[in-house]
């Protein structure tokens, strides 16, 4: 895989690479020069960061495209070129950073099991041997089914891209064996279970997070990305603008419809206010101990605080996403209209079953707030009953 050479030529930053071209029916490698951008005042010497980034994109295209004669000789080098390019195998568009990071993790899991062979030689049995070696290496530490599915999907996408580029004639992953893993935890917290968790875990950060998740239905990645500036207490809304995925800030949400205000009802205000009393009121709402500009590592909070206290109280912990599933279940039990539930959970408009739902009936904060307040009434009844029995 070539790295090219960047230099100034007149008014331009230029990238020099070697590419394969057809000349007179013969395939030859020739020097190629690509303009990156114009030189700015006082630039020279060290390559500016944005110029290097532009060069990296060009190199990725070369290494996975015309440079394939060299870079894709082996399966490993091809997969590394595919990751470097960061281009979707179906849309041919640049992938989101979080998707690329996920693919890199999948690649790192199987890198020791990838056969030392040319890309064009790979057949389905070779893919099966990768999976068999992974299963044997995992032993009793079986991964979640979704983790194995992600690895297979990554390989399938990479080989699909190779087919589309003319490197191979078929995708050997398509007919490969599936890998059996542990079933994902799809538990949905009942309101009684939420109350038990709130009672067991007497930590203001955890309690505020539990209440936000229970009564807004936002995703855990969105919870981590919340900043105090996103909370409009006067209007009673949280504006969802970003996510934190694997500890990294993503200035985007899962879908376009996810980037929207969500109602903050009374019980959520109560716990956010209590959390704010021990907080700076700046930066992230749920921030790390070493500063408001660093999002909290919920994994540490869960393992160090939540799970030990929940276990001691005999309460089962099923993860942060179980709050979102729980809210969806309670809303259905209360016979809230399907479209209102979809608006509360900010599902993609593409998932709406009706044309009216997708295009004509817009989300209403008032309608969503009224539905969530019905859930709040149910929860307060559970709190009252618990106090009477205490």
Q: Which labels suit this protein?
A:
3-stranded antiparallel beta sheet, DNA polymerase, domain 1, 47% helix, 390 residues, hpI Integrase, Chain A, alpha+beta, 15 helices
Strand-residue fraction? 5-15%
- Estimated helix fraction: 40-55%
Q: Number of folding domains?
A: 2
Within the largest sheet, what's the order of strands? Answer: 1-2-3
* Arithmetic mean of pLDDT: 85
Estimate the global geometry from the Cα principal axes.
Answer: globular
| Low-confidence segments | 66-72, 354-358
Question: What top-tier CATH class of the largest domain fits best?
Answer: Mainly Alpha
CATH architecture of the largest domain: Orthogonal Bundle
What is the chain-wise order of helices and strands?
EEEHHHHHHHHHEEEEEHEEHHHHH
CATH superfamily of the largest domain: Intergrase catalytic core
What integer value in Å does the Rg equal?
26 Å
Straight-line N-to-C gap: 69 Å
Number of helices: 15
Count of strand segments = 10
């Amino acid at each position: 895989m070539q790295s090219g050479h960047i230099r100034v030529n007149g008014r331009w930053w230029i990238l020099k690479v070697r590419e394969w071209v057809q000349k007179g029916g013969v395939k030859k490698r020739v020097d190629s020069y690509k303009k990156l951008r114009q030189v700015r005042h006082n630039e020279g010497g060290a390559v500016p960061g944005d110029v290097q980034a532009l060069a990296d994109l060009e190199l990725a295209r070369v290494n996975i495209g015309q440079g394939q004669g060299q870079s894709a000789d082996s399966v490993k080098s091809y997969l590394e070129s595919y990751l470097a390019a960061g281009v979707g195998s179906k849309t041919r568009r640049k992938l989101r950073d979080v998707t690329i990071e996920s693919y890199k993790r999948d690649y790192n899991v199987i890198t020791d099991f990838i056969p030392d062979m040319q890309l064009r030689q790979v057949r389905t049995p070779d893919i099966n041997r990768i999976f068999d070696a992974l299963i044997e290496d995992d032993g009793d530490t079986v991964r979640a089914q979704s983790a194995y599915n992600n690895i297979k999907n990554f390989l399938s996408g990479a080989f699909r891209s190779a087919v589309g580029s003319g490197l191979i004639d078929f995708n050997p992953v398509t007919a490969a064996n599936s890998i059996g893993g542990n079933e994902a935890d799809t538990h949905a917290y009942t309101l009684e279970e939420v109350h038990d968790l709130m009672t067991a875990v007497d930590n203001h950060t955890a309690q505020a997070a539990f209440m936000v998740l229970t009564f807004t239905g936002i995703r855990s990645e969105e919870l981590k990305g919340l900043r105090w500036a996103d909370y409009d207490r006067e209007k009673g809304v949280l504006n969802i603008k970003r996510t934190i995925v694997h500890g990294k800030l993503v200035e985007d949400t899962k879908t376009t419809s996810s980037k929207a205000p969500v109602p903050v009802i009374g019980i959520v205000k109560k716990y956010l206010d209590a959390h704010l009393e021990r907080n700076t009121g700046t930066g992230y709402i749920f921030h790390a101990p070493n500063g408001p500009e660093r999002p909290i590592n919920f994994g540490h909070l869960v393992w160090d605080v939540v799970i030990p206290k929940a276990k001691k109280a005999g309460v089962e912990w099923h993860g942060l996403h179980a709050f979102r599933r729980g809210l969806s279940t309670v809303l259905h039990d209360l016979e809230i209209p399907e479209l209102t539930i979809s608006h509360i959970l900010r599902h993609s408009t593409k998932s709406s079953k009706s044309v009216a739902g997708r295009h004509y009936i817009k989300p209403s904060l008032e309608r969503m707030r009224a539905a969530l307040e019905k859930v709040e009434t149910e929860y307060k009844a559970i709190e009252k009953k618990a106090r009477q029995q205490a």
